[in-house]
């Protein structure tokens, strides 16, 4: 694969393809609200500063590798186009080769809303077809309240989501999300979570 400089260009959001199966719908709702608060004030400037990182894949399709929640929120708010940053041109690869390459580089997350790995064919072809994972929303909210630090590790929020999936009952989240969040905050400071990216639990002297 030839190395290329990043290419910035506008694309239709509806044409973007995800590299993951789920998002947190609560997270998307938050980003929709934030967009509405600033759309009239500095919407164009905001979009100019938040280009979506993508890969150019088979049949020249653009595959999102980060900011899925933002892209989906903007689409739901009626934004038609957004700037993308083409990080790599993989259009010469066959479909299976493309997904294997992405997987090996941490550029895709083919896990369903129960945290089960699926075949690449199960990844939806449109952002709007991604399913809700309540634990991904929990992981996002946990980071905002100081449960862990933001990291550049690919799909770090999903790592936290899977950790919480096994320790916080879905019934609790569906009944009282804030109680589930309180439980998650306690869990985030335990030694059980120390392997996760951004862990900021007790110091070694505690």
Which value, in Å, is the CA radius of gyration? 18 Å
CATH superfamily of the largest domain: Conserved hypothetical protein from pyrococcus furiosus pfu- 392566-001, ParB domain
Q: Could you list the spans in which at least 5 consecutive residues all have pLDDT below 50?
A: none
Output mean pLDDT.
93
Number of strands: 6
- The number of distinct structural domains comes to 2
Could you tell me how far the N terminus lies from the C terminus, measured between alpha carbons in angstroms?
A: 49 Å
Major sheet strand order:
1-5-3-4
CATH architecture of the largest domain: Alpha-Beta Complex
How does the helix and strand content classify structurally? alpha/beta
Largest sheet: 4 strands, mixed
N-to-C SSE string, H for helix and E for strand: EEHEEHEHEHHHH
Question: Any idea of the CATH class of the largest domain?
Answer: Alpha Beta
What proportion of the residues form beta strands (DSSP E)? 5-15%
Number of helices: 7
Shape: globular
Q: What is the fold-level CATH name, i.e. the topology of the largest domain?
A: Conserved hypothetical protein from pyrococcus furiosus pfu- 392566-001, ParB domain
> What helical percentage do the residues reach?
40-55%
